[in-house]
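Hi all, posting the design record for the shared folder.

TITLE: backbone redesign
STEP: 1 of 1
STRUCTURE INPUT:
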């Protein structure tokens, strides 16, 4: 995983052992794990950086529960949900 993300193995091991991952680590790990970086910030209970924040501030209250539910779906369900989300307007 460290190689795929371009990270040092010790950094990844430390995060897996309970150290809080940094912003750069989460951004790099996301594609290696098949996630969007914003999903990892939410799952790690970290503040989502401004460049990843939703355009609709009211939408933020739904993100955590949507991501939490989505990770429990089978792959086909996640693809369908992602397709639906991408079809929604950002305003």
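Okay, here is what came back for every position:
SEQUENCE:
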């Amino acid at each position: 995983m460290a190689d795929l993300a371009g990270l040092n193995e010790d950094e990844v091991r430390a995060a897996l052992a309970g150290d809080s991952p940094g912003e750069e680590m989460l951004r790099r790990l996301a594609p290696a794990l098949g996630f969007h970086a914003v999903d990892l910030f939410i799952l790690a209970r970290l503040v989502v950086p401004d460049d990843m924040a939703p355009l609709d501030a009211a939408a933020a209250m739904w993100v955590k529960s949507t991501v939490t539910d989505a990770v429990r779906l089978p792959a086909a369900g996640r693809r369908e949900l992602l397709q639906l989300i991408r079809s929604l307007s950002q305003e």
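COMMENT: The helical segments are 2-5, 9-16, 23-33, 37-43, 60-70, 75-87.
Let me know if anyone wants the other runs.
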